[in-house]
Amino acid sequence: MSNTVLVTGGGGFIGTWVIRELLSRGLKPVAFDRQVNAERWKRILGDEASKVQFVAGSLLDRELLSRVVAEQQVSHMIHLAALLTPDCQQSPYGGCEVNILGSVGLFELARVNAGQIKGISYASSYAVYGPEADDNSLGLKAADNRPPSFYGAFKMAFDLIAEQYWRHFQIASVGIRPHVAYGPERTVGLTAGPSQAARAAAVGEPYTINYRGCVGYDYVEDVALAFVRSALETPAGSTVVDLPSQLATTEEFVQIIDRVVPGSGSRISVNGPEIPSNIPPKPHFISSLFPDWQPVTLEDGVRRTVEFYRK
Question: For labeling, which of 174, 201, 213, 228 is most exposed (least CB within 10 Å)?
């Protein structure tokens, strides 16, 4: 059997750490993305970056993806590529094209190549969950727990589509729901602030985190491991699991950075809007799939991030 793993979105933050995990297992990753951050790959993958096959293309280019799967003898898929919340809010049509049709295209490839593709993991999201409080403006109760954005709605819709691929075609998959992924090289997005604050602490610089609120944090190496294990050990069915996501306020995150780098907290400030917490009403944690799952603690994750930047 081939040991080639297609990683869509392999040029991104989580994708790069997924590739690192695959390389550490002696597997062959094929990264599919619009572009790659060569400097990020160099910093995270080191000399191993030269072993990664990179294919530039759009998730909507089904012919190219089909050719890649055939030529590279892809045996497993890890699907991370997506348009994020701001793009989906600005262009719901474009978000639907990429996040739903693009994802369906990959599952179609798995269906056509059912004897070749052995397992799939894909990125769902905590964005499928709404706020815990009632939203009277929409006439919703907390129990409804609906996604508050187009991005969340698209992710929820694809979870249901993945279920249909198992129901009708026996295409097994695992959807992974991280909350806020943090760690080395997280630079883009509203919630990149804590990761960048840890970098600033490592090099002795000031930093302002531009949001407040209590959300769950998942260290990036945990996130990468979840995708890799789920693709390689995909059970029968269409499974969706939540990562444990250690809860902390932004101010508590700063306190942890200060414990790791004493004195750095005085150089880190918090100033911005409060972002909502997405609360799973009935969490289905990854430990139900992998009983040996041991997440990195928030303090250890911050310590690893600081050590990365000090090097």
Answer: 213
